[in-house]
Specification:
The chain is mostly helical. The protein has 21 helices and no strands. The model is unreliable at 1-9 (pLDDT under 50).
């Protein structure tokens, strides 16, 4: 006899769920910043570069192996029955186990298609291969509780796993400084994440099963979006693979440090997206485009209000932050990071993730293919002309243009224009305020350079940025946007 599907009963409203997920994401990102503070001080440059290379392999595996199966649950589970929910989750777990094993084998050191620096990671087998396979399976933990409407469970799991990762890897670095030990610690951390998702899927909810008929339908649905999503994620990594192919592992470490700014937008955007996507899918399914536009606008407003000033502050204080976090040895990553920060502005109006909801699978694939090819071409030309910073420029240009293209498609489906969407969400005003505040910091720094340590420079520049931004909030009417958002009714 089927058991009732888990519901979000007892869960708070949309705004509170977003706050739970955003807080957990920010906490996780803070620990991601803390961990390198430890590693760069206890690992030599070669070992730290190998650590970064292994994470690039893991990110590439996550771009390919899940094949959009976890994300497809956002479409099928909310409207499905209890039996269907169990089968969809079981199908996804089975797929991840098989694809994780295949991907781990394909990314092993034997593969002659990998750059030489990547093949050298084969010395850390079997721990490295085990980590790659388990990390793919554990990726379901990043979406399933949210799909079930359990934002608090998702936030708790995210924080717990992030703490465990920081403690285990940090302790391995401090106590041994041995990269082999760290790789085994990474495998243990991935195994723990897999254990958590099996506990949630099997014992915390209604269990799992496998239905081959539903599996076929789910896979058929996921194929076009999997191709688009894989190419999109590979586009974000293309510049790093270009650098791996042209430069030494130590030089790759610089661009990998600069690229940590990439997940920053996900701190704000992903919790908002995960909370809004079920509501948008439901509204679109019943043909209520006005509700879709209203929900989408509310999400853009939240992302823009938080992301724009944060990006402006990071851009203006980048050198000090890199010196504090990664030591003066890696300060050369700062200008590269500034290029990436400019590209992250596109995250405030990102619309590529919405193409799946609107059933624009082919268009999503087309946008991503064009963007990926452009990223590689611009990246290679940029590396040959400008070095490391040229590779970052390739991904930045294509990210900005690709998301504008996706926004144009989504806006057309809603019967509106990209400009109206951006204007309604306050994006233009928020971006202008951040730009003015960052410019004020750069001007002050040039005319009154502070020769003190990085902490004092960071504090002084932060004060200038905050004062200028708050003035712009009032002058540009952003305060009214904030008040309207606070008074807006909660979307259930």
């Amino acid at each position: 006899m089927p058991v009732a599907r888990p519901t979000s009963g007892g869960e708070p409203g949309l705004k509170t769920r977003i706050q739970y997920l955003a807080a957990a994401g920010m906490f996780e990102y803070a620990l991601q910043l803390l961990l390198p503070v430890i590693l760069v001080r206890y690992l030599d440059p070669k070992a730290f570069a190998e650590y970064r290379l292994l994470w690039l392999l893991a990110a590439t595996g996550l771009a390919i192996a899940p094949f959009f199966m976890p994300q497809s649950l956002f479409t099928f589970v909310p409207a499905g029955t209890a039996v269907e929910r169990r089968s969809r989750v079981g199908n996804t777990l089975l797929f991840l186990v098989v694809s994780g094993a295949v991907t781990s084998f394909a990314l092993a050191g034997w593969n002659p298609l990998l750059p030489e620096s990547m093949r050298q990671l084969g010395q850390y087998a079997p721990a490295g291969s085990l980590f790659l396979a388990l990390w793919v399976v554990g990726s379901l933990m990043d979406v399933l509780p949210t799909v079930d409407g359990r934002a608090r469970w998702q936030a708790s799991a995210t924080i717990g796993i992030a703490l465990f990762r920081t403690i285990v890897l940090g302790a391995a670095a401090v106590l041994t400084g041995d990269m082999s030990v760290i790789v085994w610690a990474m495998a243990l951390m991935a195994l723990t994440k897999v254990g958590v998702i099996f506990y949630y899927a099997v014992w915390q909810t209604n269990g799992i099963s496998v239905d081959w008929q539903l599996f076929t339908r789910q896979l058929r649905y996921a194929v076009p979006f999997a191709i688009a999503n894989t190419l999109f994620l590979l586009r974000g990594q293309a510049d790093q693979w270009v650098v791996v192919s042209f430069f030494t592992p130590e030089e790759f470490a610089l661009i990998s440090i600069a690229a940590v700014i990439g997940p920053l937008s996900n701190l704000v955007r992903q919790p908002v997206n995960n909370s809004l996507l079920p509501r948008i899918a439901e509204s679109f399914g019943r043909g209520d485009l006005r509700a879709v536009e209203s929900t989408l606008s509310q999400g853009y407003t939240v992302v823009s209000l938080i992301l724009m000033p944060f990006l402006g502050w990071l851009f203006s204080c980048c050198y000090e932050l890199v010196e504090i976090v990664y030591t003066e040895r890696y300060v050369a990553a700062s200008p590269i990071m500034q290029v990436y920060i400019v590209g992250q502005v596109a995250s405030a109006y990102a619309a590529g993730h919405l193409l799946a909801i609107f059933r624009f699978g082919r268009m999503s694939a087309m946008i991503t293919v064009v963007s990926l090819v452009a990223t590689v071409i611009i990246g290679v030309l940029g590396v040959m002309t400008f070095g490391l910073i040229g590779a970052a420029a390739g991904s930045t240009v294509t990210l900005v243009l690709g998301e504008l293209w996706a926004l144009w498609v989504v806006a057309g489906a809603l019967g509106t224009t990209p400009l109206r969407v951006l204007e309604r969400s306050g994006f233009i005003r928020n971006a202008s305020a951040a730009l003015i505040a960052a410019s004020a910091v750069l001007i002050v720094r040039d005319f009154w350079p502070l020769e003190s340590g990085p902490w004092l420079r960071l504090f002084s520049q932060s004060v200038v940025f905050a004062a200028t931004w708050l003035a712009c909030v009032r002058l540009l009417g952003i305060d009214r946007v904030i008040r309207n958002l606070i008074r807006a009714p909660v979307v259930e």
